[in-house]
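so the lab meeting is tmrw and i was supposed to have these ready like two days ago... anyway. pasting both below. for each one the top line is the aa sequence and the line under it is the structure tokens. i havent really looked at them closely yet so no promises
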Amino acid sequence: MSRGPENTFIASVHKHLAPAVYSMKNHNEYNGGIADVWYDGPLGDLWIEYKFITVPKRDDTIVKIDLSELQKNWLRDRYDNGRNVSVIVGCKDGGVWFDNREWEEPINAGEFRRCLIPRHGLAVIISERVARG
């Protein structure tokens, strides 16, 4: 099994998770669109779709969050049902957390860089959402 940049990024976030956080990587070739990782803890659950990109050099260039239609539909439907879903778009310098369907709104490279959170910080947010850190 090859370990691409997205899986390497996910692993680099996971190594900072609180011990009380359970995570399960999802892959189902018969049911597409399911978020990449399900997290569970005493406070509830969280579903995160991860993407990994190279950030455009020009600040005004729109960052492409390459979600498939199946992924968009799955995330939207779970969100509309009251589930905790987010998208994390990673890059070599960290990641940007998209909540409340913010992944559907365009973001330029300059704003993306301003919103970057280090991998450890992403793990803290996950941990706080499901297990009080």
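ok protien two:
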Amino acid sequence: MRVIYTRQNIPIDAVSGSTKSIFLAGPTPRSPDVVSWRPSAIELLKYYEFDGIVFYPEWEKWDNTRMEYINTIDWEHHG
């Protein structure tokens, strides 16, 4: 399983459709005090041995200077 976080390069095999992928769409925390549901989703995918690409529309590390979500829309659209 490969996890691709917000604004990271989207792999060519995901674009071409030659690799299965899943996009973890849903509510995104807007503060470091709010726990994201996505880490639990990743654990479930590992448990079920998902071997594709997971698009994870959050920053890999929290940084409140990156709260400009308008800049991630293009990335999300491609993912």
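from a quick look at the 2nd one: The first strand starts at residue 2 and ends at 5. The CA atoms of residues 7 and 74 lie 9 Å apart. will dig more after coffe
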